[in-house]
Amino acid sequence: MFVRAELKRRAKAVLSRKYLKLFVAALVLYWLTEGIPNFKIFSVDFNFGIPLSQWLDAMTITLMGRTVVGLSSLLGLFGPLVLMYALMSAAVAILARLIVFNPLRFGVMNYFKRAATEEENVNDVFRSFNQWEELKRAALTGFWRDLIVFLYSLLLIIPGVVKSYSYRFVSYLTEDEPDLDPQQILALSQEMTQGIKLDLFVLDLSFFLWYVLGVITFDIGTYFIHPYIYQTDAECYLEVRSQYYGGMHENWD
């Protein structure tokens, strides 16, 4: 449904004119997706290969950099008050992801999209925060997407990955389809990606050597690669959207 080389050519053309602004935007997006949300003050890892009744004592729990196994071990090490504080901190982190990180992430991704079609404005990054209804809609859309992908991931890794590709365009559609509710946005993204999930995976895979280069440079090079990747993703959405609304969705595979 799209030609990878053409998407990358368009992305490079945009970057040649606006690289500095998009570099800063990419840093913000990386910070939102890989930075603070993954800072392991508190985390819980489950072992799904055991009976449900044994889950609590088989959790691998990281708290303030120290790892213990099992809820009973955590209680013995820190006491119930500290455990309560840790759980409250985890709840706050989840709320921050829903109300702050996801809406901001949507804004930054649409910033890349706008860079390809019009004059982007940094204020657009914070568009979801202009009105309560917009913020609620962005937060709920992100919540349902994350929840569904998580539930599919509980089955096996592959169903979760497939579902994440189904929702590839949710961030863009949240802005472009203001009349749709969160469930409709998810359904539309799923329909737009029908038959092209493998193409999207191959598109991501085509950046593998760039990531290797980033690792070789101690991750410094990764920061300079991200604008290229994010802009290509925006170009991909614009191309698929154009085809979808151009009537080709009637024969969508």
Topology, element by element:
Layout: H1 4-35, E1 42-45, E2 60-63, E3 66-69, H2 71-78, H3 80-117, H4 132-155, H5 157-166, H6 170-176, H7 182-192, H8 197-205, H9 208-216, H10 220-245
Antiparallel strand pairs: 1-2, 2-3
Helix pairs in contact: 1-3, 1-10, 2-3, 3-4, 3-6, 3-10, 4-5, 4-7, 9-10
What can you tell me about this protein's structure?
The protein is mainly alpha-helical and 253 residues long. The protein has one domain (4-38, 100-251). It contains ten helices and three strands, in the order αβββααααααααα. Helix 1 packs across helix 10 (220-245). The longest helix is centred in the middle third of the chain and has 38 residues, at 80-117.
